[in-house]
Amino acid sequence: MLRRILVSGVSWAYLALVYAFIFLPVAVLVLFSFQDGRLPVPPFNGFSTQWYEAVFVDRKLMAALGNSMLVAISSSVVSCVLGFLAAYSLARYKLPGSALQRGLLIAPMTVSYLIIALGLLALLNALHMPLSLLTVGIGHVVINLPLCFAIIYASMGDHQINIERAARDLGASDFKVMTLVTAPMLMPSILAAFFLSVTFSWDEFIIAFLLSRFDVTLPVEIWSMLRSGLNPKTNAIGSLVFLASVALLLILEFSLFGRTKKQ
Amino acid sequence: MTATTLEDADRRKAWGFAAPALLWTLAFFVVPFLFMAAMSLWKREGREIVRVWNLDNYLRVFSESALLQGLVNSLEITVIVTVLSVLLAYPLAWIIAERVPKGFQRMALILAILPFWTSYVVRSYSWLLVLSKNGVINQMLTGLGLIAEPLEIASTRTATVIGFVHFFVMLLTLTIYSNLIQLSPNYRRAAADLGANAFQTFWHVVLPLTLPGIMTGAFLTFVLCIGDYVTPQILGGNNELVLPQIIMLQLGRRADFPMAAALSIILMLAVTAAYVLCARWLKIERA
After folding, report:
1. A148 or B187, greater pLDDT
2. Most confident option among A46-60, A81-95, A205-219, B271-285
């Protein structure tokens, strides 16, 4: 009996300690984003929203926010479309060398982002191609395509083949089968792939840093803010990104979770 | 039958569907990578890259102590981080799977990975707020009178390790937890029936069965940790440079792309070696 209490006491204490470790930096980040003063470290001088105001009037930061959204959404759409087409082809037709093709499509997952970025940078330099948001987007498709392909390919079961055959027998073209039959059946995994790539692209630093020049994404802009040292404005933009992501996560959790429950 | 028999028309169609993704991967991943591998065998003269095939870059990595030290630092930090993260995350995953009531487990897990959703750059920065000379930890300790002088934690290897461990504990908790809840309780019952005590059951039954989850997480940790530039640069500063920092230095100040390429290839070989070591536990499942 005593041992049970001891074990559960130790368990709960451990849980509390690790949670404290996990939450410490985030709590400090958010608390000192409201700092009334120039330094985001103790003592806490009082509550102020001046740094949030500073974030919203910062043109460069707002432009970077827009750039990040543009790159994240467009690169994820491209990754999902290419991933879906490849998954459809590899799951529905038996092409020669299909194992090799799958391997090739998954391969970028096993290589560090830094190396992918360096390779692209070397090639773009050699071809004298200018760096821009487009090149960042190309890099982000390279890292997200394997993910989208793997998720969508894994959800293409054999049980959907008969429905597709039925559609074909009734005269639907390949395009119609794909857009009106296959894609809707796979929508949960396509959406999962899409949102996962949006998250990865949104938060990606090194590719965006090396492959952009004048227009930059949010992580790169925050990086250049760090040069000025500890600054409550960095806390404010960090907290905003965190709260927005958590809000998005909760919406997805409840909408997708609700859907799977209904099914 | 997974696939229909292929007529020529079907085969053309199938290639057509797969082609965009394959071409994208070839053009923007395989070709750049091969180009970089070739470049690692060229050399820099002044600001020009000379296409003379040689192994100088690789030889220099192992003869210049600053470069070699970077590789050693990277490997040391990565191994320390991986081991610490597993040691911290396993009990956490176990407590969530075993002690937390079923209805609250999802909640506990979401809480445990909530800071994942801060931006990666900001996460390292927020550790700076905690660890810097006038940061939370130092002010707390001096306030309590435990130390007279603030500790120098920021810009050291310790800070890098703390920042990394924070991130990977979250990741590993996920992989280990999902492995733990898949275990049938029958294994444990069988062990208990055969007279094993709680510790023996854990050591001989539960732990070996969760090894795939541990190794998958540990491998991911290794790969992500050894290739990361952000955390060591923000938290470790310029004291003990790791490989990605040295790669970035080659690009910037020295404009030595061939050297950066050679160091990247070495980085990749380290990852491959880790993969070979873990391969027997890594199950990459395909539907």
Report:
1. A148
2. A205-219
- In whole angstroms, give the CA distance from residue B102 to residue B82: 29
A191 Cβ contact partners less than 8 Å away, ≥ 6 residues apart: A256
Where residue B237 falls (left for φ over 0; alpha for ψ -120 to 50; beta otherwise) is left
Q: Do B17 and A24 touch (CB under 8 A)?
A: no
Average pLDDT over residues B45-72: 86
The nearest alpha carbon in chain A to B252 belongs to A210
Contact B29 A116 (CB under 8 A): yes
Average pLDDT over residues B134-144: 85
- The answer to whether B209 contacts chain A (CB < 8 Å) is no
Tokens 């979250």 sit at which residue? B170
ipTM of this predicted structure: 0.88
The angle formed by the CA atoms of residues A56, A60 and A62, to the nearest 5 degrees, is 40
What residue has token string 């020669």?
A96
3-state secondary structure A78-101: HHHHHHHHHHHHHHHECCCCHHHH
B14–A93 C-beta distance less than 8 A? yes
Phi-psi domain of A43 (left: phi exceeds 0; alpha: psi -120 through 50; beta: other) = beta
Instruction: Assess contact for A184 and A122: CB atoms under 8 A.
Output: no
Residue B139 pairs with which residues in a beta bridge? none
pLDDT value of position B168: 94
Residue B15 reports pLDDT greater than 60: yes
Joined together, the tokens standing for residue A4 give: 């049970």
Q: Which residues contact B168 (CB under 8 A, 6 or more apart)?
A: B81, B82, B85, B89, B217, B221, B224, B225
Q: Which residue has the tokens 């280990």?
A: B176
Could you give the CA distance from residue A201 to residue B141 in angstroms, rounded to a whole number? 39
- In this prediction the pTM is 0.88
Domains contained in chain B, CATH given = 68-278 (1.10.3720.10)
CATH of domain A60-229: 1.10.3720.10
The reply to whether residue B33 touches residue A89, judged by beta carbons under 8 angstroms, is: no
Res B30: pLDDT? 96
Q: Name the minimum distance, in Å, from the CA of A226 to any CA of chain B.
A: 8
Chain A hits for B119, Cβ within 8 Å:
202-203, 218-219, 222, 238, 241-242
Which residues are within 8 A (CB) of B204 and not within 5 positions of it... i.e. 6 or more apart?
B191, B196
Token representation of residue A29:
């980040």
Specify the pLDDT at position B49. Answer: 80
Residues contacting residue B171 through CB under 8 Å, at least 6 positions apart: B85, B89, B113, B217, B220, B221, B224
Q: How many CA atoms lie within 13 A of A4 on its CB side?
A: 2
The token pair at B200 is 């023996």
pLDDT given at position A205: 95
Confirm if A142 and B284 have CB atoms less than 8 A apart: no
The dihedral through the CA atoms of A201, A205, A209, A215 has a sign that is: positive
